[in-house]
Predict the structure of Reactive oxygen species modulator 1.
Amino acid sequence: MPVAVGPYGQSQPSCFDRVKMGFVMGCAVGMAAGALFGTFSCLRIRMRGRELMGGLGKTMMQSGGTFGTFMAIGMGIRC
């Protein structure tokens, strides 16, 4: 399959690069959302100190991984 060339002579990123970029962008957005919602939910049930950091980190990783996976699938469909 020939490589597509952009308007200034640069080549377009491969499908794998697009999926990878979608995953990374999704992780960033998901972790930011997880930080907001996780902080609110942990403080609501009165977590403090180490327990708060553990709960917040867990929420951020789960949210980032989930949203990153869906963004990667969406970018894969667009390839």
